[in-house]
Amino acid sequence: MTPLHIETPRLIIRHLNIHDLSNFIIYRSNPEVTKYQGFDVMNLEQAEEFITENAAKYFGKAGEWVQYAIENRETGQLIGDCAIKLDQYDTRIAEIGITISHLEQRKGFAKETLLGILTFLFNEIKLHRVVEIVDAENTASIKLLQSVGFKQEGHFIENIFFKGKWGSEFQYAMLKREWEERK
Ligand SMILES: CC(C)(COP(=O)(O)OP(=O)(O)OC[C@H]1O[C@@H](n2cnc3c(N)ncnc32)[C@H](O)[C@@H]1OP(=O)(O)O)[C@@H](O)C(=O)NCCC(=O)NCCS
């Protein structure tokens, strides 16, 4: 299968590889970055294992999260990562997630990544629906989703136990027809 490769004006979204490790660990070891995420901070060994395991995965398998690198085209350096999972029961639906390094936030990189992913999923793969589930306290992520036109569909109250307490989540989604109407 052809590896996923998405280009945007400033970024390349591509497969993670072991050369990304030194930049990946800088933000994946930061508790502020993983605060609202289901996974915890990683040490170098865990990060290396994660990249190695992920390297065997490809876009297109139902029900499997695959993590991709977000590379700054100008510097060639990893500035974050994003994940896509096609729904286990219907591969016309995908769930996504984006993480940008704390050193690179508030520069519009997440929005550019999200628009790149949506262009790929809706225009090329012809998906019907893209979903993201966010912690109800994750203001940055909520703003990001709203800024590209995702609609809030659900508010789950204390539905997930992670990092020692119950958390609440919002479900946001966009349909292909909403993506097309947006333009
Ligand atoms: C959420 C996240 C990806 C946003 O990345 P970013 O590159 O800083 O976002 P952008 O610069 O592209 O900003 C996108 C929009 O969100 C807004 N935004 C970003 N961070 C914000 C913050 N902390 N508070 C309020 N608004 C914020 C921006 O103003 C922008 O809105 P606009 O286009 O209407 O001006 C980043 O904060 C992050 O990686 N957080 C940790 C990981 C995480 O929780 N990911 C989500 C779960 S998968």
Secondary structure layout plus pairing:
Layout: E1 6-7, E2 11-15, H1 21-28, H2 31-34, H3 44-54, E3 65-72, E4 78-86, E5 93-100, H4 109-124, E6 129-135, H5 139-147, E7 151-162, E8 165-175, H6 176-182
Parallel strand pairs: 5-6
Antiparallel strand pairs: 1-2, 2-3, 3-4, 4-5, 6-8, 7-8
Task: Describe, in plain words, how this protein is organized in 3D.
This protein has 183 residues and is of the alpha+beta class. It has a domain at 6-131: Aminopeptidase. The chain is built from six helices and eight strands. The protein has helices at residues 21-28, 31-34, 44-54, 109-124, 139-147, 176-182; strands at residues 6-7, 11-15, 65-72, 78-86, 93-100, 129-135, 151-162, 165-175. The protein has an eight-stranded mixed β-sheet, with helices on both faces. β1 and β2 (11-15) form a beta hairpin. The relative contact order is 0.15. The model has no long low-confidence stretch (mean pLDDT 97). The protein binds coenzyme A.
In short:
The protein is α+β, with helices and mostly antiparallel strands and 183 residues long. The chain is built from 6 helices and 8 strands; from the N terminus they run ββαααβββαβαββα. Coenzyme A binds next to strand 5, helix 4 and helix 5.
